[in-house]
Amino acid sequence: MRLALLTDLHANREAVEACLAHAARQHVDQYAFTGDFVGYGADPAWVVRTVMVHVARGAIAVQGNHDYAVTHPPTSRMHAEAREVIAWTGGQLDAEQLAFLAALPLTHKQGNAYFVHASAHAPQLWEYVADVAAAERSIRAAGSRIVFSGHVHVPALYRRADDGRMGRQVPRAGEAIALQPQHQYLVLPGAVGQPRDQNNAACYAIFDDGARELQYFRVPYDHGAAARKVIAAGLPIVFAMRLVEGI
């Protein structure tokens, strides 16, 4: 089975459309969406509706912190600009879409794979898995051979060897990475809707469990159009600049 891994869509229709079209050309069998379908971008209703359609067809989806925020009272844990977008987003979604986001699970396990937006170690705390120590905590907590996450907006791959040693690599786009059955892995595909590694091309990955191979992809899209929509909606201009600059 070939599984497309998309995370941090962030209401960016142009990026989501580009990644889904690219994935369709790779002949994937299933999709997994690991959270943050809303926030930052100007097309939350379209993105949530698209994820809902895929879930109805058998896709996996888990809740991200922005999905949680739009269905709960605001907290100071989010910075002011993000809270502003969340408040605006709530008015863009209908009751069915809000109910969908509220009902999403924090985690999902399928066979030897574990899906979570942030860390499997206390998922509700939204910990950033940004180093090997955080990755090891998540891998240990998940208790699975492979963990698929998001939240950090930067593609990376962590490995916990059978002797307990941890490693990290920054994958090259398009490279087929062979995964060893005796090791455990944590996969961060990077963000579809708001990459932050100084590359504005959208990110996603495909896991082939038969071949035990993982591929990361960068998909160019019309980030200028997405940025202009953010400005036209009256949202903070910083989120338009991030789309253009990839930061």
UniProtKB/TrEMBL annotation:
InterPro entries: Ap4A_hydrolase, Calcineurin-like_PHP_lpxH, Metallo-depent_PP-like, Pesterase_MJ0912. Residues 1-208 form the Calcineurin-like phosphoesterase domain. PANTHER family: BLL5683 PROTEIN, METALLOPHOSPHOESTERASE. Belongs to the metallophosphoesterase superfamily. YfcE family. This is Metallophosphoesterase family protein. The lineage of its organism: Bacteria, Pseudomonadati, Pseudomonadota, Betaproteobacteria, Burkholderiales.
